[in-house]
Amino acid sequence: MLDILIIGAGPIGLACGLEAKKAGYSYLIVEKGCLVNSLYKYPLNMTFFSTSDRLEIGGIPFASIQAKPNRPEALEYYRRVADSQGLNINLFEEVTALEPVQDYYQVQTSKAVYQARHVIIAIGFYDAPNLLDIPGEDLPKVRHYYFDPHFYYKQKIVVIGANNSAADVALETFRKGADVTMIIREAELGRIKYWTKPDLENRIAEGSIKAYFQSHLTAIRENEVDIQTPTGQITIPNNYVLAMTGYQPQFGLLQKFGINLSPDFKRHPQYHPETMETNLENVFLAGVICGGMDTHIWFIENSREHAVKIIRHIQEQTRVV
């Protein structure tokens, strides 16, 4: 019987593990992928918007060469945190069911069954991309994830999106020899890192990167795509479509567990903001999952405190009992 089972070994799941260990609770972190799985899927050359001190967990210093760390530095940091603190983690083990049994929960995974008095759900949102729902989206040329620009050398690519991910993809692939066209639903670029936005604006202005604003794809075929623009539909040659359209949490998993979601498009899960407890007694949420479809609300730097709130509440419950 565990005191706490934590679902997700991202930065916030690790932070929950650190707080549980500090408080003397028996705990286990279960992760369906690798350690900090979402960060691992980030683009190879990605630089964080936040400074390294804002990405720290458990008060453990994060030293980086530049003020804003990159992906390899973040992976190194979280690996070292897990190792140096001896965190109890099972990787590549997916949670499939959560069932209440008297005063504890039975947690079924792909490898075992666990019993825990408290469950913390700290899953991210990077596994479920927002789809375009247009003909041809299922072709192999369509990618919802981007890793390295070299692959797209001498290729005609379409980048869908107006925010950070789309900006990084457009600039990196352009500088590695791709012919880049951006498709942007809005009339202007969106939320983009301040050191990136002027670069992209200048590339668009000079015509190095083509951009269609207030436009969207209507169909994808093997060697071309259709674009609906304000002046009508056009067809352009194309080798790859990189749809940087964002991602969403695993709502199906939350519903399967019995956690209430708001009925609107936002699909905010129900939880108490002071304790992070959901409508299920002794089941808590932590991290980006708390925002539902508003995935831009919670980040590592402002949700690492969720771990402190949860463990403090469990301690207060224990004292009352």
From TrEMBL:
Keyword terms, alphabetized: Flavoprotein, Oxidoreductase
Endpoints of the signal sequence: none
Pfam families per UniProt: Pyr_redox_3 (PF13738)
Transmembrane parts of this sequence: none
Stored Gene3D superfamilies: FAD/NAD(P)-binding domain
Molecular function terms from GO: oxidoreductase activity
Protein name per the record: YpdA family putative bacillithiol disulfide reductase
Lineage, opening ranks: Bacteria, Pseudomonadati, Bacteroidota, Cytophagia, Cytophagales
Gene, per the UniProt record: ypdA
